[in-house]
Specification:
With 569 residues, this protein is α+β, with helices and mostly antiparallel strands. The protein folds into four domains: 137 residues, Beta-Lactamase (2-Layer Sandwich); 110 residues, no CATH class; 84 residues, no CATH class; 119 residues, Heat Shock Protein 90 (2-Layer Sandwich), CATH 3.30.565. Helices cover 51% and strands 18% of the residues. It has 14 helices and 17 strands. The strands form four sheets. The chain has a five-stranded antiparallel beta sheet. The chain has a five-stranded antiparallel beta sheet with strand order 7-6-10-9-8. Strands 12-14-15-17-16 form a five-stranded mixed beta sheet. Strand 8 and strand 9 form a beta hairpin. This is Sensor histidine kinase. It is a multi-pass membrane protein. Pfam families: HAMP (PF00672), HATPase_c (PF02518), His_kinase (PF06580).
């Protein structure tokens, strides 16, 4: 099928195929590059978040470790000695030493924390919070203590007991250690992490909300809503779109605090150069396509259209239409080619028309010769009919035959004018039918043509050969009564007269052969009458004019004579 296409179509299809291939390869390469970069972004974001989470977990682990080890300090053991009950000064002295050690630890620690020691047996409290009086309340430790860090009043706090098995019954323990640190330590680390351009992490808890740096923005609130909607694992990430910007959000759950460390990265910000490169490539392709369309259009107008016009003209010339002419407005090589083609077509047309006109003149001469001759057989039958009617003393039949015969031969022997009105043709045909009706008593005829058609003209002797064929070949071979109906009608452009007989009829092959002979050159085996009528109508009025044949429902033949209405008004 590709081989049947013209050159221009092949070039266009090859260009489109090449363009599609380039677009496919670039799109695939671009997607792979974006996929690799997105994977690296996700890994880097998770690594940075893990590093940040480890730094916080390290500080919390140090606080937890100190809370567990402080109970083994000798000062704590000495503070709980029973014999100090009667020596309050010594217990206060030991308590001051304990408080000093805790302050030293806070001074050495990265985070300042509040360390509070509860002594259930002594019902005393030692705390590094100098500005708060913390009384010992038995009801406070009547329930089991939480084994993990808890968030209360903008701070995190954690309890441990000595012994550690007393965590479920803290009121029976020797020592309860409470360590708490404020949220601003986490906020400071979040600020420092953002200052170092390592993302914009924050902490999230489904119940307590967000802990963010001091420059928190509306994006965090939107991400918080997304986090609440999703079932979070211990570690993971997802992609979301906020305000038409795509973000990759990664999270890690804190093993000690129970909160989530969350960080997000605007993917488009990082993928911006690749996106700009992709858009530039697509824009270049669009410009290339536009330029290609212009080039193809110019080629189509300058080359393809003239070639198509030349091919169509050659095809029409090969089918016998020698009136074809090619027109080309621009001054190119095709202008010269079209001019030569038009000269060739004009010369061929002139030669063909000269030959055709010569043939028509020869046929007209043959027709005039036929008009000037009297059909001896037809004349002899009419004369014998007159003789027989005279013997039978049938004066009316003799007079009718003589008058119709005289009018008939008067009309067909006139050759001064090639055109006749429909009224004149019908009068001649009526005379002819009257003669045949007198000879063949079983023949009947009917003529029904509108009055407004009678003044229209057509070539002389166009009806008589058709009616003669209907009688000779249709009515006479049958023994039954025969009928001939002549009707006429017209439109704004065409006139049609039909001659329909109820005679013997023709087979489909016979009718097709008769139709084919109408357009063939005249030879000795063909009838001259109908062929001459068809050729004269086609020459005068064009290809649409002429004779056409159809079968009638009664088995006969219906002949239609058609010509243009507006030629001879």
């Amino acid at each position: 099928m590709f081989a049947r296409l013209n050159v221009f179509t092949k070039i266009t299809l090859l260009f489109v195929a090449l363009l599609v291939l380039v677009l496919f390869l670039y799109t695939y390469s671009n997607r792979e590059s974006v996929r690799v970069i997105e994977h690296e972004i996700q890994n880097n974001t998770m690594n940075h978040l893990s590093t940040f989470a480890d730094s916080i977990e390290s500080n919390i682990y140090q606080l937890s470790l100190y809370g567990m080890s402080i109970g083994q300090d000798s000062s704590i053991q000495e503070y709980q000695r029973p014999d100090y009950k009667d020596v309050p000064y010594e217990r206060v002295k030991v308590g001051s030493a304990i408080l000093e050690k805790m302050n030293l630890y806070n001074a050495a620690s990265k985070w300042y924390s509040t360390i509070t020691l509860y002594f259930p047996r002594l019902q005393k409290v030692i705390s590094t919070d100098y500005y708060a009086y913390i009384p010992y309340t038995e009801d406070e430790f009547s329930k089991p203590l939480s084994k993990s860090w808890a968030y209360k009043h903008n701070q995190f706090e954690w309890y441990t007991t000595d012994p550690t098995t007393a965590i479920d019954t803290p009121g029976k323990s020797r020592l309860i250690t409470k360590i708490s640190f404020p949220v601003h330590h986490l906020i400071s680390m979040l600020d420092q992490n953002k200052l170092n351009n390592k993302g914009d992490p924050f902490m999230f808890h489904p119940e307590f909300g967000l802990i963010s740096n001091t420059s928190g923005n509306g994006t965090l609130t939107a991400i918080q809503s997304k986090l609440k909607e999703m079932p979070l694992q211990e570690k993971g990430g997802f992609t979301t779109t906020l305000d038409r910007t795509e973000y990759y959000v990664s999270y890690i759950q804190s093993g000690s605090l129970g909160w989530y460390y969350v960080d997000y990265v605007p993917m488009q910000q990082i993928l911006g150069p690749i996106t700009n490169s992709r858009n530039l490539f697509y824009a270049s392709i669009a410009v290339l396509i536009a330029m290609s369309v212009v080039v193809l259009y110019v080629l189509y107008r300058s080359v393809q259209l003239p070639l198509l016009q030349l091919v169509k003209g050659t095809n029409r010339l090969s089918t016998g239409d020698f009136s074809v002419r090619l027109h080309h407005s621009s001054r190119t090589e095709f202008s010269l080619l079209f001019a030569r083609f038009n000269i060739m077509a004009q010369r061929i047309q002139e030669l063909i028309e000269n030959v055709y006109e010569e043939q028509l003149r020869r046929r007209e001469a043959t027709l005039k010769q036929l008009q000037s001759q009297i059909n001896p057989h037809f004349l002899y039958n009419c004369l014998f009919y007159i003789k027989n009617m005279a013997r039978m003393k049938n004066e009316k039949a003799v007079v009718a035959m003589a008058l119709n015969l005289g009018e008939y031969y008067r009309y067909i022997t006139r050759s001064e004018n090639d055109q006749a009105t429909i009224k004149e043709e019908l009068n001649m045909v009526k005379n002819y039918l009257e003669i045949q009706a007198l000879r063949l008593e079983r023949m009947h005829f009917n003529i029904d043509v509108p009055d407004d058609m009678l003044h229209k003209t057509l070539p002389r002797l166009s009806l008589q050969p058709i009616v003669e064929n209907a009688i000779i070949h249709g009515i006479e071979p049958r023994t039954e009564d025969g009928h001939i109906n002549i009707t006429g009608y017209h439109t704004d452009e065409m006139c049609t007269i039909t001659v329909e007989d109820s005679g013997l009829g023709m087979t489909e092959n016979q009718m097709q052969e008769l139709v084919d002979n109408l357009n063939k050159p005249l030879d000795g085996n063909m009838g001259c009458g109908t062929w001459n009528v068809h050729q004269r109508l086609s020459f005068l009025y064009g290809e649409d004019a002429g004779l056409s044949y159809k079968h009638t429902p009664g088995g006969g033949v219906k002949v239609s004579i058609t010509w243009y209405n507006n030629i001879n008004e």
